[in-house]
């Protein structure tokens, strides 16, 4: 058996889970605010054989619309986005560094919370500010995209005969937002520029 590890290093805690690569059944998880405890758990789960590690990255800016293999070049770009998510981005980068030390040969993937919102039309991306702000990157990026993407996939399962043309979904947690979807694609969101 081998597992895929998911890492969600947030502003208040670290969530890790292991999923069987064949059945997708969860084989273990931990929620902690202690990095040493998270590392211990990672070391213990390593005996199952780790096929890959995915990291939730809160801010991908306008650059990343899909999951990306973590490379040194990608890490440079992610560090440049720290000012847009100062509570989340450093924690994610720290856990990437830790998992790379532990499992150097294991492929690691960055999954972006902002990616789901790349379908927001340009007009909805713009704030009521002079155009040069938009050109400098002040725009509605959207967050909680991994949550919304999951919900969009599940909506089709629970309502297969409903066309789901227009849907509003709320993400409620440590941070909360709402997303307007058209045909299960993001067209607007309440959490825009930064977390």
| CA(first)-CA(last) distance | 38 Å
What are the segments in which pLDDT stays under 50 over at least 5 consecutive residues?
A: none
- In CATH, the homologous superfamily of the largest domain goes by the name ATPase, nucleotide binding domain
CATH topology of the largest domain: Nucleotidyltransferase, domain 5
Please tally the helical runs, counting DSSP H or I stretches of 4 or more residues: 6
The chain-level structural class is: alpha+beta
Largest sheet: spatial strand order: 3-2-1-4-6-5
Q: In the CATH hierarchy, what is the class of the largest domain?
A: Alpha Beta
Tell me the quaternary state. single chain
Q: How does the major sheet shape up?
A: 6 strands, mixed
Please indicate the count of domains: 2
CATH architecture of the largest domain: 2-Layer Sandwich
Q: How many beta-strand runs?
A: 9
- Outline type: globular
- Rounded Rg: 18 Å
Secondary structure: elements and pairs:
Layout: E1 3-9, E2 14-20, E3 26-32, H1 35-45, E4 50-57, E5 68-69, H2 72-80, H3 89-102, E6 108-112, H4 122-125, H5 131-135, H6 145-158, E7 166-171, E8 177-182, E9 185-189
Parallel strand pairs: 1-4, 4-6
Antiparallel strand pairs: 1-2, 2-3, 5-6, 7-8, 8-9
């Amino acid at each position: 058996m081998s597992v895929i590890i998911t890492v969600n290093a947030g502003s208040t805690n670290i969530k890790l889970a292991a999923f069987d690569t064949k059945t997708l059944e969860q084989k273990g998880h931990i929620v902690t605010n202690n990095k040493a405890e998270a590392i211990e758990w990672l070391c213990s789960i390593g005996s199952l054989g780790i096929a890959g590690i995915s990291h939730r990255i809160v801010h991908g800016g306008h650059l990343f619309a899909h999951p990306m293999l973590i490379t040194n070049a990608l890490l440079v770009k992610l560090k440049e986005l720290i000012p847009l998510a100062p509570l989340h981005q450093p924690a994610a980068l720290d856990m990437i560094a830790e998992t790379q030390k532990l499992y150097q040969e294991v492929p690691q993937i960055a999954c972006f919370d902002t990616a789901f919102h790349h379908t927001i039309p340009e007009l909805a991306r713009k704030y009521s500010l002079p155009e040069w702000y938009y050109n400098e990157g002040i725009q509605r990026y959207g967050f909680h995209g991994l949550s919304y993407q999951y919900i969009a996939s599940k909506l089709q399962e629970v309502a297969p005969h409903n066309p789901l043309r227009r849907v509003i979904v709320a993400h409620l947690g440590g941070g909360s937002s709402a997303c307007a979807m058209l045909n299960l694609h993001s067209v607007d969101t309440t959490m825009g520029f930064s977390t």
